Amino acid sequence: MGIGRTDKINVMEKRLEVIVGARLRNRTRIENAISTQDRLRKKSKGWSGAKEIRKWRDSR
Prior knowledge:
- By secondary structure, this protein is mainly alpha-helical.
- The protein has two helices and no strands.
């Protein structure tokens, strides 16, 4: 016996729910990361990573 039409539809619906849910979670995580980066970027104005590295190297 094979799988009935309604069973196939139910399986496809479940698969779509999983895929859409995963995409929404990933999008939310990306948006949170971007907002965190923006917040940190605002706090670090005037800071130069190259200058900090140079100071650290020169002090050795």
